[in-house]
Amino acid sequence: MSRTPPIVSALDHWLSDSVQPASMRWFGMRVVEVRQISAYSCRGMNGNPHAHISEHAFGNALDIAAFTLADGRRLTVKEGWRGLPEEQGFLRDIQASACREFATVLAPGSNVYHYDHIHVDLMRRSSGRAICEPDAVSGEEIAARASHRNPYASSRDPYVTGSLGGPREARRKNRERINEEDEFEDD
Fold first, then answer.
1. Predicted structure pTM score
2. Is 103 buried (19+), middle (13-18) or exposed (0-12) by CB count in 10 A?
3. Could you report the per-residue pLDDT of 98-151, keeping only the tens digit for each?
4. d(CA 149, CA 41)
């Protein structure tokens, strides 16, 4: 009889109760894939052979680098942490919820080793202390700050960067311009 590691249950709970609702809220669609970059790995913390043994060595930790949305868009932690307002809001909301689910959550800004992923683990500490770094901040607050810095950023359309319309509209206008130029050359 095989036993499911506790990290699997915690991850499943976090994905269904926090990640999927946050994805629906920020993007209007579900996450269809989570890309993890390190699971079981018998090593010291942060890859240092002289450090305490990592929770990865017990199969008790995951490093999450990216999420793929239902429309195929891929949101990486590395780019999205300071990306569009909705990307920042989503990532900060799921980091905050991870801090409630896991014993350790390290995200970009926690240290140099976690610049491109969110580390989660279930390390048991004798003090009972949990670690959440950087401090959890509401996605709404982060997205509002990001929108304030970039007033052209859209809350829903990743293609809008100050111009009107998305890529389909831009292609249509370009075709119209080319057709108009062709008409003038024929005269």
1. 0.75
2. buried
3. 999 999 999 999 999 999 999 999 999 899 999 999 999 999 999 999 887 765
4. 40
Detail the DSSP E strand segments found in the chain.
31-38, 61-69, 74-76, 104-106, 118-121, 131-133
- For the record, the structure tokens of 180 come out as 């108009």
d(C-alpha 89, C-alpha 81), whole Å: 9
CB count, 10 Å around CB of 178? 10
Cβ neighbours of 162 (radius 10 Å):
9
Q: φ and ψ at 116, to 5 degrees?
A: -125, 10
Residue type present at position 157: D
Q: Which of 63, 107, 113, 101 is nearest to 81 (CA)?
A: 107
